[in-house]
Amino acid sequence: MSTLDFDNQATDPVELLHTWLEDAKVRTNLPNPNAMTLATVDQDGRPSARIVLLRGLDERGAVFFTNYASRKGRALDAHRNAALVIHWDELERQVRIEGRVSRVSGEESDAYWSTRARESRIGAWASRQSEILEDKAALEAEIERYTREFEGGEVPRPEHWGGYRVSLDQVEFWEGQPARIHDRLVCQRVNDRWETCRLSP
Ligand SMILES: Cc1cc2nc3c(=O)[nH]c(=O)nc-3n(C[C@H](O)[C@H](O)[C@H](O)COP(=O)(O)O)c2cc1C
């Protein structure tokens, strides 16, 4: 059944994506219905992709949290454009987002940091994400070191950890349909309002 409304020329992709995320939470057994592929391009023009979790969404963009010094962080320092893809196989739905990337404010990162479990916070200090690790024992030693360092107190947010926001320059909603006549609805920001069109499958 088609649920995309092609008659509405001004579909709000934020609203629609919230609805689809809620559907994925309620109608699937996926442990991470907010998992999305993040594609970046490094300074040599080489693309790379990995999964991150969608932690915030509004008209300003889609937010995820990570290590700013990681491979993806370095790529985003070089190229401020990124693409996100969310796929819910059980719902025959896919969402593609393309936009410009910026760091969220320190306050916003702090707010999310405060919701993380203590072990995850220690891990963010101990792990030099994307760097070569001699062996697991070396990481465990770092975890022990920071556990001792912060014992009995708060674990502050490291400078190198925080959020990125991908602006919603283009958002495409894809929905599987019988006989492969799939539906594709694209929303683009034009002069402060949304414009939509249908794409051929
Ligand atoms: C389900 C799932 C969720 C993940 N969520 C995040 C996340 O929110 N942030 C993050 O930095 N890495 C996350 N990861 C790990 C990344 O996929 C990746 O391994 C890591 O960020 C290093 O990527 P990089 O070397 O390209 O920077 C997640 C992996 C999986 C499988």
Please characterize this protein's 3D structure.
By secondary structure, the protein is an alpha+beta fold. Helices cover 27% and strands 34% of the residues. The protein has one domain (13-113, 159-198): Pnp Oxidase, Chain A (Roll). Strands 1, 2, 3, 4, 5, 6, 7, 8, 9 and 10 form a 10-stranded antiparallel β-sheet that branches. 22% of the residues are buried. Flavin mononucleotide binds next to strand 2, strand 4 and helix 2.
Helix count from the secondary structure assignment: 5
User: What's the total number of strands?
Assistant: 10
Number of domains: 1
- Rg (C-alpha, Å): 19 Å
Mean pLDDT: 96
Classify the fold: give the CATH topology.
Pnp Oxidase, Chain A
Proportion of residues in extended strands: 25-35%
Structural class: alpha+beta
What is the annotated CATH architecture?
Answer: Roll
Heterogens? flavin mononucleotide
Provide the low-confidence segments as ranges.
none
CATH top level assignment: Mainly Beta
CATH superfamily: Electron Transport, Fmn-binding Protein, Chain A
The rounded distance between the terminal residues' Cα atoms is 16 Å
Give the SSE layout.
Layout: H1 13-27, E1 35-41, E2 47-53, E3 56-58, E4 61-67, H2 71-78, E5 81-88, E6 93-103, H3 106-113, H4 118-126, H5 136-149, E7 161-166, E8 170-175, E9 183-190, E10 193-198
Antiparallel strand pairs: 1-2, 1-5, 3-4, 4-7, 5-6, 6-7, 6-8, 8-9, 9-10
